[in-house]
Amino acid sequence: MEKYGAGSIVISDYDPNWPALFEQERARITNALSSFALAIEHMGSTAIPGLPSKPIIDLLVGVPSLEEAGKRCIAPIEALGYKYLPEYASWLPGEMFFRKGPPGPWTHHIHLMEPSNPRWEAFLVFRDYLRAHPETAMAYASIKRALAASSNDNIAAYRNGKTIFIEETTAKAHAWRAHATDQAARTGVRRC
């Protein structure tokens, strides 16, 4: 069983300081990686206004080459207080994963990958869909709270329990984005 840090999984009410905490960390990572970081996005539940979450700021960091990132990024990111977890590559292919904070509960995660990785788009479309659909975000909150209560400190059970909801919602989100893109193309409106 993969345990969750220093105790039971806790889902906290939304904290309006989470976006500011993300911005602070984005500035630190930008400074550490300079132009090698192509993009840094706030992802995960703390990026969804109003959504209860484990209080961990998830950062999605895009790099031009994962192979090159293995040589250039580990030391600068670890100098910011993160720990690189190479063993996570077995279930997060094409990604380098870092976490920061005491040995649980953690405060920040970095998911470092090439933006061409299909998970990059999946993370962002899921986030954007939940931002635009608060009723779906609240359904997700209910699932997360129930899983946290039943999983105790088994983070794998918690994570796996969310899989079906995330996959189904991501599929809806891709259709939603495609529809919005089609609508914009038909009306001549450019999306940013």
Automatic annotation (TrEMBL):
This is GrpB family protein. It holds the Pfam family GrpB. PANTHER family: GRPB DOMAIN PROTEIN (AFU_ORTHOLOGUE AFUA_1G01530), GRPB FAMILY PROTEIN.
